[in-house]
Amino acid sequence: MQNDTTTRFDWITISLYLIIVLFGWINIYAACFDDMHSAVLDFSRQHGKQLIWMGISFLLAVAILLIRPRVFSNTAYIIYGLVLVLLVLTLFIGSVTNGGQSWIDFGAFKLQPSEFAKFATALALSKYVGDINTDLKVRQTQGILSFIVLIPALLILLQHDTGSALVFSSFLLAFFREGLSAYILIIGVLAVALFVAALLINKYLLMGILAVLCLGYLFVWLSKRTSKNYWHTAIFFAACCLFTLSVDFTFEHVLESHQRDRIYVLLGKIEDPKGVGYNVNQAKIAIGSGGLTGKGFLNGTITKADFVPEQETDFIFCTVGEEWGFLGSLLLIAAYVGLLVRLIVLAERQRSNFARFYGYSVAGILFFHFFINIGMVLGLVPVIGIPLPFFSYGGSSLIAFTMLLFVFIRQDADRNSLF
Amino acid sequence: MADKYSNRSGTVKIIFLVVGVIFIARLATLQLFDKEYKEKAKNQSLRNITQYPARGLMYDRNGGLLVYNEAVYDLMVIPRMVKDLDTNYFCNALGISREDFLARMEKAYSYSPYSASIFMKQISKEEFGRWENLLYKFKGFYISKRTLRLYERPIAAHVLGYVGEVNEHDLEENPYYKRGDYIGKSGLEASYEEQLRGVKGKKIMQVDVHNREIGSYMHGQLDTMPLEGMNLYTTIDADLQEYAEKVMANKRGCIVAIEPATGEVLTLLSAPCYDPNLLVGRIRGENFVKLNEDISKPLFNRALQAQYPPGSIFKVAQAMIALHLGVITPSTGFVCDKVLGCHNHPSAHSVQEAIKMSCNPYFYYTYRRVIQQGRYKNIYKDSQYGLTVWHDYMNRFGFGTRLGLDLPNVKRGNIPDTAFYNKWYGKERWAFTTIYSNSIGQGEVEVVPIQMANLAAIVANKGFFYTPHLVRYYGPDSIRNPEFYERHETGIEKEYFEIAQRGMYDVVHGAGGTAHKADVPGIAVCGKTGTAENYGNDHSVFIAFAPMENPKIAVAVYVENAQGGGGTWAAPIASLIIEKYLKGEVERKDFEHYYMEINPCQKLPLTRRIKKPKKR
Which pTM value belongs to this model? Predict the structure, then answer.
């Protein structure tokens, strides 16, 4: 029986997980390396601590694989409730690090509840979606689901951890799979495009271009010119103009100044490699100097010389780029994409809505982290401080991601025994 | 559970793959195609540390040390790395005030908080020794070793020159120099800069974000060792130089002594002299201002840069050219008819006598024959021809040309040519009568003292000279400059120079000679007196060479604004120089004492003397 279960675990996913975690540790070791503290088991150093987190994570993973899968769906709301309590508690007793009040201090270690909130929210959402009585077409259901996502997101936003709060938008992927209108995604993409365009070029010019496009759509491409089409186009145009005009307000009054700067740096409107653009510039230098094969393990001149801030956490990919070069980076990206695609394959073979939705949630969360983290290091998206899953230094993040993933692996192993 | 949205899984996978491909494409541009980042990485994580070679030393002609180096220390600071500094303790140790400390820190900070800048310059070994063992307490400060020039004997400042920090011009001119480097600014230090400086070495160190060194780069494969500067073996006779400076200590003027057979400069000075040690190290700036503002212009190298009318000494060259052109013969005589002002003397019946007595009318008539040789009926055309020939021969004597000696800023003087007068008076608007003042070394003729010493050498050599120079050879391979071994001929017959020599011998020894004070017992000194018209009193000038047979030394002495002509002041001083050099010691103690103590130079400042208007 035990053997049967073991063979049913998806070893491809587990292998990819192990590869990423171990390669991550190697790079943390390199990023923090100095000649005085080269002992692998030096637990006062980050690489030593990460070994402890890895040990805990592996134990937890094994434990999760041994637990009956029903336990997770049955306790989903309890876990979700507990995490909400922790998030609220964090607001009152949390310690402040890097401007974010995200940690609860337990003396020997610090817990970051927001990392676990993703896992809990994924469980709770999946539980609700998986309920036989749930009909996603019902407004009330949609409202409840939105609440489940938005409550933790808002609590995290209150901790000034915008990055982690944004991660909750990744559940859109799972909802997309469950039938969320593709228009929402298209509107989302359009909004981002308009936002960027409004920052880069004159707003009235932009509206002019939109007007030309709309008119062109109406009179050149559109075959049936019904009054309904006219109205829709007009409304669309009006909405775009309003949005465009609101960009300035959003930008100046909703975003904080460092967020504005990061966006400007990305768009190339600020050239300040010594100031607000420092991180990204240094990251690019570190990665760019790696070349095809990299400078070799422990030989990174930029990362080892502490030019890149946060290099063992959010900017860990710099170390990969510099020391392992294009080939190493390529393999890491391939491993992530492989893991993500594999998760979709697994999710699709689930027989319960709970497991499928949970699988997509896991894939969505991991993808969002992967996209934002590496995108920011490569200077493709604004700097948003979220870790690279399984790879960045950090106990809460590694443990939470491990739980997130292995609960799904456990569900997958049991996919046929349900019902 | 097949549902109508299961096909959306494909879309999701495509999104994942597309993001992966975008990342890989971005990585490829950053890592494989864009070279900019590799360059930047090098620039910021590597620091080139310059290793300064020791500057070459200088020796005199007898192997005595003239210039050497002394280690000094620059205290460097990296402001960002200064931590837990006990400011009072630090200031006390260094002996500076708190305000001074703050000002220096401010300056360093404004240069760069992360890079090293000089906190305190040129700290002596002794001073550094007082707080060397405390240095470890001052985080962010470190010591950089430099060298300073020091001078074994406080002599020959004008010849040796001085070294100073490079300026903007130097930096633009030559990429070898970096800010803060030293460069020869004048004298031999400047003209042999490339040989003396050596080649800087380079050490590449890896640094971290705080600019701390964290090890060598590529195990030092790219590092280069500094190449030591080459030593200069000069032609200066330090003993003679020191003696000459002592003689001129309280006077203004200059002395140039040359070994005629080689062109090697034995002594070159411009009085007032100054101690070269004054222009070294931290005291340099202050002293430089003082010297620069001194009314007697000690920084002005008169021997190379002062352009005077040559006066009567010029007559020697005039006579040689006239003889060579055949416009007079050795036995040509002219009556001293006072066509030009002259002193009382019998008329000269030969060139030799004319030189001895320095008869002005004699050279007036001689020069007339040189300028108006009768080749053309038109006296203007005739004068043009004559002047061109004369100008050419004067050039061969080194007059009106920049002598190619190995010191910077040598003036050329002026020998007027036809173009000069055409410009001044108009073409064919001038003839001998317009320019006759040149005949006795007045008028438009100007010479530099070194050219006068060279004239003495030419007569000593009977018609040729080697370019005067101050360095025999340099470096471990004893490299010599071939230009200094090229014999420059005047093209004038030897026997005419023998006449000049006899005339110059008579100047010192003969009855009616103008410079009996130049006589050195036991040595056949030949000389010629002169006065150089100037503001204030005329300069007293004398050129000489000795001994007459196989001359060892040719010398020119200028004493500024000294009443009484060349024979009164310059001649006895020249005799002291000759005696010192040929005998090693001056035996005429009273004579020596007298001319050392006395200062015949008119007191400064001079009031401008009204010059007689130029003839038109």
Answer: 0.63
